[in-house]
Design brief:
319 residues, alpha/beta, seven-stranded parallel sheet, binds uridine-5'-diphosphate
Length: 319
């Protein structure tokens, strides 16, 4: 089986590349950014990197023509982008996804579209089944541009599905692990990581009682690989994640304890970190029944174990 992973040089893409190579697939990746996260795979006889973007229809067309299956992971993600550069978020996530679907439709190739738990917004009725409502704020709040861009991508998937294209949608819940973003940037675990390594206080926003379901990337890529390789997933949406909820304050305590850092906890106001164009989500919990039943990923790694290997990795990785 030949597969294309758009954004294959990113965090989830690099782990998915490993997973698919281990399953004897031939893996092509399309990656406009650096290759730091996949440098250990370069030279593998079944791994090929193309340095380009999903915004280039020509290159996409020629790559999609050569493969059997497309995992579309390329996207602009990270709260700093939602509030700092909403144009790029919307442009790449909406138009790039259209390009991928257009090429896949031309050649009749299945697409696994990586979406997000952000599509549910702040729906208060937890846990969220895949057909739960989307509850979002005003378009004046830039934060919602990411959720909206991914929901547009999902709508495009279903529109193409109606025209006969096999598609599957995966919605990720706070995936973490080695190679996550880079220190001090992106998501909470890398922000805390940078602070821990410098023995600085961990900046907990608000009272820290907001929760997330932190999911180890090894579990996420098993589920993602299956979503593409199985036929019974066509036309489906899957929540990908654990349903074990952890508060941000508990996460901070756990990371201090595991790392042995002398960092303390500092409570900060949301506006100090993200300005006014941000609205936090209080709780985010998936219903994981469908993932467990259809994708066969039912034993998920405990958070503490995952944090240990992630902290270890960041300690040893020159940034
Ligand atoms: N957060 C925090 N301190 C920070 C950055 C983020 O307490 O320095 C909180 C943020 O308010 C949110 C949670 O951590 O409740 C997760 O944030 P992240 O940026 O990882 O992404 P999200 O899950 O909100 O998409």
């Amino acid at each position: 089986m030949k597969v294309l992973i758009t954004g294959g040089g990113g965090f989830i893409g690099s782990h998915l590349s490993e997973e698919l190579l281990a399953r004897d697939c031939e893996v092509f990746i399309l990656e406009p950014g650096g290759t730091k996260k996949i440098r250990h795979l370069i030279g593998h006889p079944k791994f090929r990197v193309v340095h380009d973007s999903v915004m280039d229809m020509g290159i996409l067309d020629s790559l999609v023509a050569q493969v059997d299956l497309v995992y579309h992971l390329a996207a602009v993600v990270g709260v700093e982008h939602y509030v700092g550069d909403p144009y790029q978020v919307l442009n790449v996530n909406v138009n790039g996804t259209q390009n991928v679907l257009k090429a896949a439709f031309k050649y009749g190739r299945k697409v696994v579209f990586s979406s997000t738990s952000e599509v549910y917004g702040r729906n208060p009725n937890l846990p969220w089944k895949e057909d739960a409502d989307r509850v979002l704020g005003s378009t004046r709040i830039d934060r919602w541009c990411y959720s909206t861009s991914k929901a547009v991508g999902e709508h495009f998937c279903f529109a193409y599905s109606k025209m006969g294209l096999p598609i599957t949608i995966t919605r990720y819940f706070n995936i973490f692990g080695p190679r996550l973003d880079k220190l001090d940037a992106g998501r909470i675990i890398t922000i805390f990581m940078g602070q821990l390594l410098r023995n600085e206080p961990l900046t907990v926003i608000g009272d820290g009682r907001q929760t997330r379901c932190f999911t180890h990337v090894a579990d996420a890529v098993k589920a993602t690989a299956n979503a593409g390789l199985q036929d019974d997933t066509n036309g489906e949406i899957f929540n990908i994640g654990t349903d074990v909820e952890t508060s941000i304050l508990d996460l901070a305590k756990m990371m201090i304890e595991i790392s042995g850092s002398s960092s303390e906890i500092k409570f900060v106001k949301q506006e100090e970190v993200y300005g006014d164009s941000y609205e936090d989500i209080g709780r985010r919990v998936p219903d994981t029944t469908r993932m467990k039943k259809l994708l066969g990923v039912s034993e998920l790694s405990p958070l503490e174990e995952g944090l240990r290997d992630t902290i270890e990795w960041f300690r040893n990785e020159p940034q």
